[in-house]
Amino acid sequence: MWMNSKIVDLFELSFEVKDLRLVLGNKTILEKMNTAFSGPGLVLIEGENGSGKSSFLKVLAGFTTASSGIVNIQRKEFSFLTTSSLGLLNDFTGNEHIKMISSSLNVNEQTLQHALEKINSLEIFQEILEKKVCDMSQGMKQVLRLFLHLYFRPKVIFLDEPFLYLSPKIKEFFQFWIENLANDSLVFVTDQRFS
Question: Which of 60, 54, 19 is nearest to 37 (CA)?
Fold first, then answer.
């Protein structure tokens, strides 16, 4: 596993990892890991399946507790979300998900409309808005998850393998969006190959 970061010189928040060790069952996933991130910027975590990318992301996001070591988070304004934590409700349409998340996060109507205009260039999105999740393909579900994570521009974003099930055109659309978000947010992306 290796990491590459493109950091913009506006240090609003930072993560520092010291002697991180993660053991799951009897398997050591991460051993004596030391690194630091500050941002906004884009942190790419690339590696083969089973190399510990997703596990590392879950420790950073607070969904998994390290076996030992320290993860320090220093922040000014801070909000985050992670793709792996967002389940979709089978009986809800894309529109219903968007309304529910927008309401819970107090996203104003103008911000939401701007984001919807941006993604409407994807032909598949109109179908996603109307379909129930139980009737969507894996690619449609992934587009909906990505939209729900990105449209309100959180300060920290954790995306675990966000390009699974996406066609090249849709992957390119989201890569561009994520790269633009990295101008104002600290974005962590795991992928076997980002570009």
Answer: 60
